[in-house]
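DATA SHEET
Item: assembly model
Revision: 1
Owner: S.N.
Input lines:
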Amino acid sequence: MGKANLEVFSETLQHIAESNRDLLVVTSDSRGSGKLVPFAQRFPDQLVEVGIAEQNLVGISAGLASAGKQVFAVSPACFLTARSLEQIKNDVTYSDNAVTVVGISAGVSYGALGSTHHSLHDYAVLRAIHNIIVCAPADNFETEEAVRQAAALNQPVYLRFGKRPMPLLRKDVPFVLGKGRVLQEGKDLAIVATGEMVHPALEAAALLNESADIEVTVISMHTVKPLDTELLIQVAATGMPILTVEEHSVYGGMGEACASFLLQEGFHNRFQVMGIPDEYTVTGSQQEIFDHYGLNGQGIMEVAQQLLGVSQEK
Amino acid sequence: MKESLAKKSIEYRKRILKYIYKAKAGHTGGSLSCVDVLNVLYNRIMNVGPSNFDSPDRDRYVQSKGHCVEALFVVLADQGFFPESELETLCQYNSHFIGHPTRKVPGVEQNTGALGHGLSLSVGMAIAAKLDKKDYQVFTLMGDGELAEGSNWEAALTASHYKLDNLCAIVDYNRLQISAPTRDVCNTDPVADKFRSFGWEVVEVDGHDLDALEATFRKLPFAAGKPSLVIAHTVKGKGISYMENVLKWHHGVPSEDQYEQAQKELDSALLAL
């Protein structure tokens, strides 16, 4: 088991800050939840605190970026991509200020705190805004790479992190923003997952293989926008059914993005989107919410079996 | 011979009306109320122009009340950022000269138009100057109606928290907004007391008195360690008799007769200089 992606995020920023005095972290009273206390202690002059004021957080970050600073604007994803959406749209993307907007404790990480604290809309709203890369790293490796690549890019990026420790997945498949990672190859089914859903997708693939010799391709589609359309075409061209899994509303997320693209390309693979349904989201721990909606290895396997037309008894 | 500042103000008004009349769109009243502030800032105060716009040391101007873009465009053209003839395309298909500032227009610092954004952007720029130990100043122009946007008050808190005495916000205090007098829509008064209580140093000035404006800006910062607010008392539609303080000129476009009358009034004002 690795660390929480957020911890790796903070450690990576510290590595970068050692040689880059222009790197700034801007927070809205969120340094604790962002695991940024060690950063603040080591680089007190490179952390700008704006208080509980998310609109201001993003506006100030854009102003700092316009003056040459390399800015990571950090706040819970639920507030950052809703309350300050207009600042992201106008001050960051439209004005082309190269801020990395970092949504922490994303998805249903704050499970028991309720819908005010869930961010199941962020892919949808950010996908509809021009000039921002949207990325949800799956594990510690993807996190470190995503942070380094975002810091090196001179353009707006949204990074989305959960708060629980993540299993370590493969490191030998390169991570490039905008390019999906094929974590395993199979001929019967493709599971395309993003963020913290990649690990349960791998678990489902293992269960399918053990129970019915089903060979599954598993892709970490960490970058929701721009989608790796080349990879999607490769997968769809095999004719395999495709199952997408994400910690997001089934509306407007990665799955719909894939479906829309493939349909318009003329592919008619059997296709299923898994995510959080359009209802008042149940509360509980993040894992309890995942279990409730079948967003775990077993649940994904069952949906995969239906998609494949394989009976569960077989 | 260098034109006097007063002459520039009248010429700017003539051009604002010319391009709004041609485009059949624009924010007439507010552009006429804020243009004297812009005149003084660009011609007397700020160290920014086409020759140093790429310099990290330039002064910054962010027009938070982006809808009054016609005033900004004519002043930027006069500064030499682009040929004034380009304003003939204002609001036309695929023109960069649209109804709000965009960075596609040379000299525009930030894309604005949604109200309540400029002050936070400016706070970010001012913090960057402090971190880099640079002495450029950051100016932002807000409307009095715009002060109802809560994000302004978030930014006002941060500006005083970080002791941003390199930041100057200006309120174009013309007391009218699109649907009614500001005090009847959502009263933002007393503006000075509110900002003072947020830790700002406030100076009130006649926003059409060019000498007073210049003298005011020359005193910046008004207090060491505090952000500065200038409340510019202005008249919406200033300079055109039938537009002054009349609500419908917020974004009214003059008819042919009205346009000719307005130009005549401004020509008379030029002659009277």
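QC remark: Chain A touches chain B at residues 24, 45, 48, 50-51, 53, 55-56, 58-69, 86-87, 90-91, 94-96 (CB under 8 Å).
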